[in-house]
Amino acid sequence: MQQNTVDLWDQGWAPLYDDMDNVRSPNQHTAFYVGLVTPGTGSLLDLGSGTGSITAPVVEKMREGGADRPAVGVDLAPAMVELAAARYPAIDWRLGDIKCPPVAPEERFDLVICCFHTMQALRTEADMAESLSNIRDALAPDGRFAFDIYQPNRAYLAKAAAGGLEDGRVVREFSDRTGRRLRVREYSTYDPETLLFSGTWYLHDGVTDARLPLEPMDQTLRQYFASDMERLLADAGLQIVERYGDLDRSPFTPEAKRQVIVCGQG
């Protein structure tokens, strides 16, 4: 994951993370990942766990039977790890990269998850391959790995590559925990050679639209097509057992918004 993004989460964006996500689909994400828990789910590894907004309800579902089942959340941003640890101290929060998660060789997990298209922060196929190999090694024999990424929208990406996206378009409008209205404006580009979509976010007042004194956030997402993921997963020894077009478990089609994939060891 890009270091600049990590630094900016630490410098002031992290406290806004959950508020911004409330305008996306946190309930859909929560419902999908909680729905993966079965009576046999005895351990969890959440990669790119952020503030723990998905980790915590998954762990709660796991522990409904009363067992104190091990759960680990991993994030590269210290501010995210600190927020998660303050909110959910019973979970083992660790600072680390999803490419090489900080888990011991003997640790094995029944469920590994990576939410909110975080796998797309892996900018190259080599990085993705390394991450998937390490995830496979962290799975228990009957364990499952579930993640969601965006399905590349070819028309949208072509428009971005041609400079046709509106500069400063609003991509988030939300209220923070004090009730202050905020909006995020984005300037973005796409490189069809590297398959990297890069967006720079600026925070604005939601009423006056004045830009606020917070350093802009750069985020870059690698675009992975369905055929790419099929090949990379197979090469890592992972087998797709479920695939959906969105978090509501709708069928996966070429027009689907997302690739939502559940894997087991191949």
TrEMBL record:
Domain Methyltransferase per the UniProt entry, residue ranges: 45-143
Pfam families given in the database record: Methyltransf_25 (PF13649)
Domain of life of the organism encoding this protein: Bacteria
GO molecular function terms attached to this record: methyltransferase activity
Organism in which the protein naturally occurs: Marinibacterium profundimaris
Protein name listed in UniProt: Methyltransferase domain-containing protein
PANTHER family, per database record: METHYLTRANSFERASE (PTHR42912)
